[in-house]
Every structure is written in C-alpha cells, then in structure tokens.
Amino acid sequence: MLRVVLCGVGGVGRNFVRLSREHAGIQVVAAYSRNPSLHGRDLGELSGGPATGAAVGDKESALATEAEVLLIATSSFLRKVEAEIHDGLRAGHDVMSTAEEMAFPWEVDAAAARSIDEHARAAGMTVMGAGANPGYI
User: Fold this and answer.
1) Do residues 82 and 90 make contact, with C-beta atoms less than 8 angstroms apart?
2) Side-chain half-sphere of 101: how many Cα atoms within 13 Å?
3) Which of 28, 51, 69, 124 sits at 20 to 30 Å (Cα–Cα) from 94?
4) CATH number for the domain including 85?
5) How many domains does the chain have?
6) Are 69 and 127 in contact (CB under 8 A)?
C-alpha cells in the first residue's frame, strides 16, 4: 500500500482523492491546507464521496503521519512549491508535485532546482515533477 500525504485540497487534490479510491494500492492518509476553514473536514466528503477517515489538518501533523509520499497539489510554479518540497524531504517523504514548472525545473530556476536536487540526494529521497492541471487528471 502506498500511503500519501496530500498538500492542497483544491481541484487537483480533490481529484487525486477521488482517483485514489479507485486504486487499492493507494491510500491518502493525511492532508493539509493553508485554508483553516477546511481543517477537520474529511477528504472523501470534500471530494464528493464517502468519508475516508482522513481529515484535512495542519502541516506539522500531516507531515508527521507515516507515509511514503508527499503529493503537493497547490501551484503551477516552482517558487511556490519549493519550501513544501523541502519540508516533505525533511519529514522523510519522497515528493511528487503537480506543478507544471517541475517538469524541467532547471529551465525555470536553476538555483531552486539545484537546492531541491541536492537535498533529495543527501536525504536518499526522490522528487518528481508531474505537472497536472485539473483538466489533465
């Protein structure tokens, strides 16, 4: 079972929750949002389905949840996801980002890409950019 912590419960994040219910090998175990009005809400219900038992909470609690992957589904832009990527690596998670600029970050911001790459390598973790807007999912 691949356990996922979700950062961002907007359109892409909610679509991911819906898709994860169709795949027995994926479980969203925690989520966080900068929007405090979403804290405590069940991910399944936010995504238009049955409750999953995983609620939106704060970043620290979500990142402390045992999981293999942090999925960042908040922004298209490298600079806006860079800190979240580093937070995920520090928490011991491999990281996937839906930011379109993560498709080839060295072209967008070589210094940020190098910082992420060096951190991931030092931690023995993986960072993957899989740019996906809501229509793509």
Assistant:
1) no
2) 17
3) 51
4) 3.40.50.720
5) 1
6) no
